[in-house]
Specification:
- The complex is a heterotrimer of chains A (327), B (171) and C (199).
- Chain A is mainly beta and 327 residues long.
- Chain A has two domains: 19-211, Clam (outer membrane lipoprotein receptor (LolB), chain A), CATH 2.50.20; 221-321, Phosphorylase Kinase, domain 1 (2-Layer Sandwich).
- Helices cover 10% and strands 43% of the residues of chain A.
- Chain A is built from six helices and 20 strands.
- The longest helix of chain A has 10 residues, at 30-39.
- Chain A is globular, with a radius of gyration of 21 Å.
- Chain A starts with a helix and ends in a 6-residue tail after the last strand.
- In chain A, 47% of the residues are buried.
- Residues 1-23 of chain A have low confidence and may be disordered.
- With 171 residues, chain B is mostly helical.
- In chain B, 50% of the residues lie in helices and 0% in strands.
- Chain B is built from seven helices and no strands.
- By secondary structure, chain C is mostly helical.
- Chain C is globular and about 55 Å long.
- Mean pLDDT of chain C is 78; it is low at 96-117 and 193-199.
- Classes of the chains: A mainly beta (327), B mainly alpha (171), C mainly alpha (199).
- Chains A and B meet through strand 1, strand 2, strand 7, strand 8 and strand 9 of A and helix 6 and helix 7 of B.
Amino acid sequence: MSQRGLVVLLLVLVPASGFAAEQVSRPQDALGWLNLMAEAPSKVAFSGTYVHQYGGRMESSRVTHAVDGTGEYEKLVSLDGPAREIVRKNDDIVCYLPDAKLMKYDRKRARKFFPALLSNVPDLLENYSPKLGPMDRVAGFDCQWVYLEAKDGFRFDHRFCAELAAGLLLRSMMISDKMEVLEQFGFTQLSMGSLITREQIKSDYADQQSAWQADNSALRDSPRMDSGWLVKSLPSGFKKAWEMKRMMSGKSQPVVHQVYSDGLASVSVFIESPQASTAAIAGPVRQGNYNFFFRSFQNHAITVIGEVPQASLQMIGNSLSEPMPQK
Amino acid sequence: MKQEISALMDGEIDARAAGGLIQQVAHDKELEDCWAAYHLIGDALHEACIHRAGLQAKIYARLAAEPTVLAPKPRRTWATTRRGRRMSLAAAASVVAVSIAVWMVDRDHGSGFNTAQITPAQFSSPDPSLLQPAFAPAVAAEMNEYLQAHQEYSPSGYQLTTLRTNGAAGR
Amino acid sequence: MSDREIDQQLVERAQRGDKKAFEMLVAKYQRKLSRLLSRLIRDPAEIEDVTQEAFIKAYRALPAFRGDSAFYTWLYRIGINTAKNYLVAMGRRAPTSTEYDSEEAESFDDAYQLRDINTPESELLTKQIAQTVNESMALLPEELRTAITLREIEGLSYEEIAEIMNCPIGTVRSRIFRAREAIAEKLRPLLGTAKDRRW
């Protein structure tokens, strides 16, 4: 679609189904709540402020989300640190970086934006057991906790708190096997179902676009590629979600980047020719809340990283096989 | 020690102690041979003995060549001593972070945790790219870049922080 | 802790990547499994191959073992399937009297004589081992012999043995251990030292 299309569309908001007067029958069990949480962002309009905590950081963002017959519209504004903004319509994204006067066009692909963290609920059930938790209150809304307990030691537990009326995810946590909160998202302020105008979804920098640089490179990259590298032993439930070649600082050659996911957790595998710096580390490393695993294999440097236990990284990192030589 | 192997094979040892003992057997050839010898005696007494010399060695050799199987069960253990909690408020980088930190930690009662048990591990270091001192800065920077690249695709949530302003990295 | 609980601990350790724990299970069950498979396969060299295969298959299948059954029944089932597949691959069928499952496997007559199946040399070694063990048993002081007999042959717990022998449990534990060590000492020369042959 046209790159200007994002800022030209008219937006009218449809109030969330089940909001206010309508009574929606509440889900009876954890699975019902999960399904509701997965659907809510495509049905509910909302705006609010949420906090994301991970790896020693905490970042607040302001989100405005609208839904109409043509899809979902969203605007995300960073409240901490350097100014950043993302405007999204369905799968199309524009990132505004005012400090660099740069606009980057991209596609959403496999990425998820809070509170739309749940999708493909049936797939999740293979690896996680749903359980109902207690009731709570977040940002002024009553909500219901749902736990997703890892069925094995290859992943961590997750917890989600769903607003009662429409099932919007209000707070989520990922919890390690030592009962530490590794990552969480949570609304600190929220209003739901009100009409949202076009202005509210438009970027604050929309008028300045002509003076800024536009970066289309993400759109031009081949969306998926297959390097031929295979992971022979994947922990159960993990599937390859993405693969690409990317340039990274200080490296003269592109690096193969594969992403494996079980629907909630993900593992990245980076494969490259050995560089001077990577030769220094080998084996498992924990940095902040992320586990890393480094290995050299057949004249390549392998880096595996993910918000999963070491067992998963090692199983993946140790079972890579090289591509078959091309004819 | 060997007496404990004897008790272990009869199941006459406390379940918790068994774990530690098995660990020792794994690292001590003599103990491992002891375990095998006592079982051989048991089998002989049962006349269950069909003894092929070297079979056990052959099986061990094939096992050594097998890729290590991993099928860990989920474990949930509460961490006992935590420095993190006290450091969390002190280490928070900004006023906003502090107030939200208090909010996040104190609100945990609803999620089933009580605040004494949960330690937001993320607060223990205000600088997320702070690595153990053993890593050279170049290495630390590299690890950080892998981390950012990973976070771009992590389904646990895309956040604005993964946007990088330098055009070279990431594309 | 029951026998099943010991096995469960060993399995869980193996599932977390501890190969030695699986080796301990091999040491515990390899002869029993061979004996079981000898009902299906006559040639001792083939029994050996199939036993090996079965253990490796069990190791690879560890992620699928959830502890619903005892480890040894699960192992025996794998062993029997491996043996059957082997026979099919060789173009042979298992003896018809052996259409059984692993539950039956456990109730086999302990006095089953294997002489017609063993090769001369392994039969000799088996005989020597049995002889050494029996001789050592006979030479043991009476209370050690009683303790180990009650434990190994009768399968009684230390507590039950303590009651029967009218002594503290600690004494039972020590007697059984001393009996085993005494026999093991006589066995070790037979099996070679740890250095030259892992038996």
